[in-house]
Amino acid sequence: MLCRTGVAAAVAVVVLLSGSAASARVQAPLPHVTMFGDSIAEAIVEDDPARAIVRQGVDMDFEVAPCRRLVEESCPYNGVQPPTVMQVVKALGPRIGATVIVTLGYNESADHFARNIEIALNAFEDAGVKRIVWLTLRAARHPYVDMNDSLVAAAAKHPSLLVVDWNLYSRSHPDWFQGDGIHLLDGGSKGMATLVHTTLEQLGIAAQPSRVKGTGRIRIATAHLPDAKRRRPYAAKLAAAGGRPPYFWSLPRRLPVGLHLRSTGWVSGIPKARPGRFELTLRVRDAPGTVATRRVTLRIRR
């Protein structure tokens, strides 16, 4: 390993050879990460903001496809059977990242999942992977609870495996999911991307981006909501400033009957509550998890 003086001398030689000391700049390559996933992770790839979040500070290779399985033959999707994780690992060879993200398992047999986890982990380690980050399944069905337990058990035997609890992280956000409680809507794809990126930051794999001067702490910019009319369509967008986007919105208490708040900040619906003034406490969280609150008034008119 070179000391600071050695590195400085090496850089100086390069600068002198190029003839431009002022413009010379040495940049280390970004850490290479490979993400394996099925249709759940595909929502991140298809969502530009979510994809940008998860790629911050890393060279991310997305190996995601609907119906992908670990070891056993993948299920068909639109007439195509994607290669299994094991087949992709073999095809990648030395091009696989030193860090691997795994977010799949919904297409697996519960009876074989523990065995397939073990096969996958051994294959990753044999391929030179140093760290495996595996997200738990959202326990929308009972077998997924037992399958998550299998992941935790595997982590006890494999120091390279870190189990990240997506099930717990997403529990209070039913609005992130489609009707099956598993597949992601826009808020869910950003939520999962944020969880993955935050984990990579905490592991020291993804460098934290320098904060833009003047952004300050997160705050809610919306001072009041437009009046709503009873039984008439309503839509309003909440605004936040500062912190680090994306922002995730919530309310400690429910909105008046007929109105709903999405995690993206849209308040919409057809208000059915009696006319009057409603005091609301808005809550917003930014990507690192900093929270801001603000009380606003919503008036429903006849």
Describe the protein in words:
With 302 residues, the protein is of the alpha/beta class. It has eight helices and 14 strands. The chain has helices spanning 4-18, 39-46, 48-54, 85-92, 113-126, 142-157, 166-169, 186-202, and strands spanning 32-37, 59-64, 99-103, 131-135, 161-164, 219-220, 228-229, 234-237, 240-241, 248-250, 259-261, 266-269, 276-285, 291-301. Helix 5 packs parallel to helix 6 (142-157). The longest helix is centred in the middle third of the chain and has 17 residues, at 186-202. The chain is elongated. The model is unreliable at 1-26 and 210-214 (pLDDT under 50).
N-to-C order of helices and strands: HEHHEHEHEHEHHEEEEEEEEE
- The counted number of beta strands is 14
Main-sheet strand order equals 2-1-3-4-5
Low-confidence stretches: 1-26, 210-214
CATH class of the largest domain: Alpha Beta
Global shape: elongated
Query: Helical content, roughly?
Result: 25-40%
Largest sheet: 5 strands, parallel
Describe the structure concisely.
The protein is an alpha/beta fold. Helix content is 29%, strand content 22%.
Give me some keywords for this one:
alpha/beta; Immunoglobulin-like; 14 strands; 29% helix; 302 residues; 4-stranded mixed sheet; 8 helices; 5-stranded parallel sheet; 2 domains; single chain; disordered N terminus; Rossmann fold
